[in-house]
Amino acid sequence: MIEVKNLVRTFKSGDRTIKPVNDVSFELEQGTLASIVGKSGSGKSTLLSLLGALDKPTSGDVVVNGVSLASMPDGKLTEYRRRDIGFVFQQFNLIPNLSAVDNVMLPMEFAGVRKAVRLARAKELLEQVQLDPEKHVRRINRLSGGEQQRVAIARALANEPKLILADEPTGNLDEQTGEHIIELLSSLSRDHNTTILVVTHDRQLANKTDRRFRLQQGRLTEEPARTRVAAAATA
Amino acid sequence: MSVLARSVGNAFRNKVRTGAVVAVLAVAIGLALSMLVANQAVAAKVTELNASVGTVLTVNPAGGQGFEGGGEPLTAEQAATAAAVPNVTDVVGTKALRLRNATEAAAQAAASTQASGTQAAGPGGGQGGPGGQSTTTLTTSLTAAVDAGTLGNRNQAAEGTTGSTGTTQPARSLPITATGIGAQVDSTGKALEITEGTGLSDYTAESSNALLGTTLAEKNGLSVGSTFTINDQTYTVGGLFDAGTTFGNNALYVTLPSAQTLAELPGELSTMIVTVDTLENVDSTKAALQDALGTDKADVTQGQNLETAVSSLDSVKNISFIAFVAALGTAGLIILLIMVMLVRERRREIGVLKAIGAPNRTIGLQFVLEALVLVALGSVVGAAVASFASGGIASALISSNTSTTTAATTGRGMPGGAAGLPGGGAGFPGGGPFGGASQLLTSVTASASPGVIAAGIAAVFGVAIIGALVPALLTARIRPIEVLRGE
């Protein structure tokens, strides 16, 4: 369970103080697929980086399974990112000179998983995200955008994290590929009991999530959303 | 993929740049290794020189040296006095003789008599040099192995017509140096290198055996067992030696009593070679020896040529060491700059690695290993460069650093080749049988031994690690949010 308590992040810009995240509080149960929508510059990515321990809040706290991130030293935060968080970036952020399977193996290597185990799991994950097996050993820069995003999702799943934070995961993809990625994230949340928080502009994606938040001028409000059960029933 | 494999892969990401970096590193590393090889070779030579002759003192009559100067000759009693000085382990006396070919000497004497009517000796007759206090000129059946050459003929032209009225002097060959020795050592105290035959067994007793320089024996068609004469007395070639120089090999050695008998000067010595027990005691023993013998009776020197040679070699050693450190520092600086550039270039990638949980030490290690891959490649090429270039670089260093030294050391004594004066251009005692500093210096052989190369590469790796640590530590300061925010 993730508890976000009165989270504030401010930046100085000349004489001005900007508050992209202003007193944000919410809770997410394990296995929830949630989305945050909002205009560009509304603070969505900043909130995501605070939840992922990439950035530190000015005030407030994020509590993950009863553990406060605010009191964690840097080393522990790195460990938290490695063990409990999976990131999916809009720009994929894969290592270009490595193959797809090597990219997926990276987080497991950092976690000290044996080579044989991580290789087998990386291949399994790549199959799970439906990447053609012959492309497993292909260098990242020789894969299409959709394929790269699938590799990025496989990498995010490598250490079986409790929380996946996806920043505009379909932002650089065509409609069809985006659809597939949405289905993939939805099934991951459902089948692996993984909490997924997606930052998106994509209404279609947001409508498919269990909970939908809107961030406006740093303040978060929850919008009513159809449950997946309801969505499935309608479908 | 392990950190090492990833580092190797990263090192070859940009092959053109990797090639350029390796080439620059190879030059720096090759230079560093060459300098280390030169340094080690010179250090080994200095040690060898110190071990072989560094503890040897030479005693000459006060005011005289070799065939030069004046003063009173040394005596057997003074040798006993020297032997009693503390820390002296050995005293070897020598008696220098100058041999002239009997036929030529007779022809020149006749020519001189015809020219002046009165001049029987002196420069024109080839009987002794200026002063000539401690040497005796004798006749021999041998012919010198050194041609008079330009120097000899020039001096002959200058001195051979002295007192004449335009009468041309007959052509003459150079004198041969004969030395009576009390042990199987040359005039510097260094063991004689016998190439054929045996030594003279007992050097303290009279003997009709002699040791000949290789070129002198060759010139006269002699081998071990052959005979020749000195003052009509027959001597047998007991062995051949190689002094390492043309001048040094135009000489012969007999036992000390034999030389004294030939000179009809029993108990008289030209020089004494005094060996001190340790290098540390050389200075104090030199002073004690000088006191014991008296400054008005004897000059005690510590192989001036060798001192100069060793000093010169020390200078080369220091220069090569400084150059080694500088080249090493350059290699480290190259690595530092390259890795700083790579870290700046890969800030985003480092941020991503941190975002997905890479510890700082893993990222730092990756960059250090990448640097070491580049250094390893540079070392392979650099070692190859060093193995080919080290000899040439060492020679260039030595020759450029010792040209003035060798000129000074070989220029002492009289110029060779003049009638009545020994030497084939090397001079005496500055060169010739005393070894010649130039000979010692140029005999330094710089070969790239695996041990030295390995030590040099280890030093290069050490410096590279230090150079790579700085950028590796810089990676720890990169905050993932700062580079990812760029999106």
- Tally of distinct domains of chain A: 1
Tell me the number of structural domains of chain B.
2
- Number of DSSP strand runs of chain A: 10
Number of helices of chain B: 14
Interface with most residues: A-B, 32 and 24 residues
Tell me about the largest β-sheet of chain A.
6 strands, mixed
Uncertain parts of chain B: 118-134, 160-166, 404-438
Radius of gyration of chain A: 18 Å
Helix content of chain B: 40-55%
**Mean residue pLDDT of chain A:** 86
The named CATH superfamily of chain A = P-loop containing nucleotide triphosphate hydrolases
For the largest beta-sheet of chain B, the strand count, sense and barrel status come to: 11 strands, mixed
In percent, how much strand structure appears in the residues of chain A?
A: 25-35%
The arrangement of helices and strands of chain A along the chain is: EEEHEEHEHHHEHEHEEH
- CATH architectural grouping of chain A: 3-Layer(aba) Sandwich
Helix content percent band of chain A: 25-40%
Strand order of the largest sheet of chain A: 6-7-8-3-9-10
Poorly predicted spans of chain A: none
Q: How would you characterize the overall build of this protein?
A:
The complex is a heterodimer of chains A (235) and B (487). Chain A contains 8 helices and 10 strands. By secondary structure, chain A is of the alpha/beta class. In chain A, the strands form 2 sheets. Chain A has a 6-stranded mixed β-sheet. A 4-stranded antiparallel β-sheet of chain A has the order 2-1-4-5, covered by helices on one side. Chain A starts with a strand and ends with a helix. By secondary structure, chain B is of the alpha+beta class. Chain B has helices at 3-11, 15-53, 76-83, 102-116, 149-159, 214-219, 256-263, 282-293, 304-345, 347-355, 360-410, 437-442, 450-476, 480-484; strands spanning 56-61, 64-65, 68-69, 74-75, 88-101, 136-140, 176-181, 194-197, 209-213, 227-230, 233-241, 251-255, 268-269, 271-276, 298-301. In chain B, the strands form 3 sheets. In chain B, strands 1, 5, 6, 7, 8, 9, 10, 11, 12, 14 and 15 form an 11-stranded mixed β-sheet that branches. In chain B, strands 2-3 form a two-stranded antiparallel sheet. In chain B, strand 5 (88-101), helix 4 and strand 6 form a beta-alpha-beta unit. In chain B, helix 2 (15-53) crosses helix 13 (450-476), helix 9 (304-345) runs antiparallel to helix 11 (360-410) and helix 9 runs parallel beside helix 13. The two termini of chain B are 27 Å apart. Classes of the chains: A alpha/beta (235), B alpha+beta (487). The A-B interface holds A 45, 49, 52, 54-55, 75, 78-79, 81-83, 85, 87, 89-91, 93-95, 97-98, 102, 105-107, 109-111, 115, 155, 159, 167 and B 1-3, 6, 9-10, 13, 348-349, 352-360, 362, 480-481, 484-485, 487.
